[in-house]
């Protein structure tokens, strides 16, 4: 390994490999590096936001199905889902009344409104991030 480094330095000294730093445009290199950094920053935060939305949407959809099927709220799993999904539904409470069907089925319109609302908020956030990141 040491011999390879010595040979490489000899090649540099013999000018077989020539690097002229005066001709390199440092501004272009910095701009390229920053654009890659911003791209990584945008992709990282956009992915996190989208995954959080997906998790929230799944959680709310699960609540919607359990409410539609009239699941027993006294069971541990159902009560846990209802308890934690109430946190996400609190901004949307009482916007629309629930829809009740004759055989005991009900559609919780608040949950549907929350799913649409959170999707719109995430869409706006991603568009704002995209606005600040320009190619």
Characterization of the model:
This protein has helices spanning 2-13, 26-68, 76-89, 109-132; strands at residues 99-100, 106-107. The chain is mostly helical and 135 residues long. The protein has one domain (36-132). It has a two-stranded antiparallel sheet. A hairpin with a 5-residue loop joins strand 1 and strand 2. It is elongated. The two termini are 42 Å apart. Residues 15-23 have low confidence and may be disordered.
Distance between the termini: 42 Å
Question: How large is the share of residues in beta strands?
Answer: under 5%
Instruction: Please report the number of helical segments.
Output: 4
Helical residue percent? Answer: 55-70%
The number of strands is 2
Largest sheet: 2 strands, antiparallel
For the record, the count of structural domains works out to 1
Q: Uncertain regions: pLDDT < 50 for 5+ in a row?
A: 15-23
Please write the string of helix (H) and strand (E) elements. HHHEEH
Provide a quick synopsis of the model.
With 135 residues, the chain is an all-alpha fold.
Features:
135 residues; two-stranded antiparallel sheet
């Amino acid at each position: 390994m040491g011999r390879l480094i010595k040979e490489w330095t000899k090649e540099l000294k013999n000018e077989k490999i020539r690097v002229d730093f005066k001709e390199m445009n440092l501004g272009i290199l910095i701009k390229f590096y920053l654009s890659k950094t911003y791209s990584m920053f945008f992709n990282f935060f956009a992915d996190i936001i989208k995954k959080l939305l997906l998790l929230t949407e799944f959680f709310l959809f699960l609540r919607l199905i359990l409410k539609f099927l009239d699941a027993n709220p006294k069971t541990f799993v159902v009560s846990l889902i209802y308890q934690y999904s109430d946190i996400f539904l609190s901004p949307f409470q009482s916007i629309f009344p629930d829809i009740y069907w004759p055989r005991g089925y009900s559609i919780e319109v608040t949950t549907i409104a929350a799913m649409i609302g959170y999707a719109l908020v995430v869409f706006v956030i991603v568009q704002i991030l995209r606005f600040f990141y320009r190619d």
